[in-house]
Amino acid sequence: MDFSRIYDSIPYILEGIPVMFQVVLVSALFGITLGIVIATFKIIPNRFVNFIGHAYTAVFRGTPLILQLAIIHFGLPQLTGFITTPYQSAVIAFSLNSAAYISEIIRAGIQAVDKGQWEASDALGVPYVKQLRSIILPQAFKNILPALVNEMITLTKESALVSTVGVLDIMRRAQIVGGQKAIYFEPLLFAGVIYFTIVMVLTYLGQRLEKRLRKSDGR
Q1: Residue 13 to residues 3, 8, 50, 148: CA-CA distances in angstroms?
Q2: Residue 182 — left, alpha, or beta (φ > 0 → left; ψ -120 to 50 → alpha)?
Q3: Taking the CA of residue 145 as centre, how many other CA atoms within 13 Å lie in the half-sphere pointing to its CB?
Q4: Largest Cα–Cα distance of the chain, in whole Å?
Q5: How far apart are CA 148 and CA 134, in angstroms?
Q6: So where does this one cross the membrane (predicted)?
Q7: 99 and 34 in contact (C-beta within 8 Å)?
Q8: Terminal alpha carbon distance of the chain
Q9: pLDDT (tens digit, 9 = 90+) per residue, 90-141?
């Protein structure tokens, strides 16, 4: 191994970090928003709406993310004629995929809330949607926050897939450097170190958050 051959390319690879975080954060934001909607579909007392929510989750959890990304970036233009940029395709695919997993996390969190909360809301005549928005979801989010952080960590690792559609993230830049210098091990290993460091930091922050939540609950 000779890392001296990629010293001059290290700043270029590091420029992929903000790109990666931009994809992850924007996708997580849309994923959580859509995930709340899908989770609501799963618990609303309506079989047809339930079916839509569960079918959505089944499709996006049952197929590879890289396939979803490829269909959105390469396949949809064939059907619709609308061409998205690599970044747009990445955000759409990651948002839709993340929403499926987040909806399950939120659904479990909602159903874990004490039934007495629902009953008290019903007794007070609070409308169903308002119950969810103002009473149930705030309690559920406190319980599922660590799980959402874990989903963010997973999203960070999987973000390397955006390199397959040309987004200039860490992985893609490492591949470009490897092609230019005809060496792949060193730039890819350096990219791996960057991902590992970011994931370890996020994991540590997630553990700290979980401990703080436990203390606030008196556990």
Answers
A1: 13, 10, 45, 28
A2: left
A3: 15
A4: 71
A5: 20
A6: 20-44, 56-76, 188-206
A7: yes
A8: 49
A9: 999 999 999 999 999 988 887 777 777 767 777 777 776 777 777 777 777 7
